[in-house]
Write a structure and sequence with these properties.
The chain has 10 helices and no strands. The chain is elongated, with a radius of gyration of 20 Å. The two termini are 20 Å apart.
């Protein structure tokens, strides 16, 4: 099974309720700034799970000393650097995480209105952490955005008691895809799907390194 297939399998699974369509809808209903900040906190949460799998002890006093502020592993960047420095994540994912960190910093520290459109290139680069993942994110995000939009239009017809005009809905969706509003919404959906798939990718990496859970043994880095 490829990495992409493993990620999609987890996306479709009920085992990760915080990393499914509900999470994506939650992010896409946030402001652009809010989606970035909440999404980044989610990927940081999963990086910390990976870090905890690596640590030689699981006692709360030990892990809190490292991961709680001002501990050496309390920041987003320190978790990234630890996992990369010991080769648990590769160059592509390392670069993607730092692209997300750059967007997060812009969202957190900008006094002006934060605009995802100004960071569209960074978002695209963020989603290149595995082969074909960027394409997958683009397809999933657009297809599900249009599906969500279609359901909303159909609901309007139903609430008014009208017969659904499918031709009109399809024309509306076609126009929406290339409109300024459609492109803006697609961008936040790409960000949201990218972040969720990054979290699922961390879970895949954790499974590939599950020998780390045996803390009585010392293993060489692959």
């Amino acid at each position: 099974m490829t990495i992409q297939e493993k990620i999609i399998q987890k996306l479709d699974s009920d085992l990760y309720p915080d990393l499914n369509a509900d999470m994506i809808l939650k992010l896409t209903n946030e402001s652009e700034r809010g989606a970035v900040l909440i999404g980044t906190s989610k990927i940081e949460e999963y990086l910390e799970k990976f870090v905890l799998q690596i640590l030689p002890q699981t006692s709360k006093s030990y892990t809190k000393r490292l991961t709680n502020y001002p501990g050496p592993l309390s920041s987003f960047s320190s978790k990234i650097e630890l996992l990369y420095g010991f080769r648990y994540i590769g160059n592509k994912f390392y670069a993607s995480l730092n692209k997300l960190r750059k967007i997060r910093n812009l969202a957190a520290h900008s006094y002006d209105d934060f605009n995802l459109a100004e960071n569209a290139t960074i978002i695209s680069e963020m989603n290149e952490f595995e082969d074909d993942i960027s394409y997958l994110v683009g397809e999933l995000s657009l297809n599900n955005l249009l599906k969500f939009k279609k359901l909303k239009l159909e609901r309007i017809y139903q609430e008014k008691g009208f017969k659904i005009n499918h031709d009109y809905i399809e024309k509306t969706l076609s126009d929406f895809k290339t409109s300024d509003d459609g492109l803006k919404q697609h961008l936040i959906w790409q960000l949201s799907y990218g972040i969720v798939l990054m979290c699922l990718y961390v879970l895949v990496l954790m499974e590939e390194n599950n020998y780390l859970e045996d803390r009585e043994l010392t293993h060489p880095i692959k």
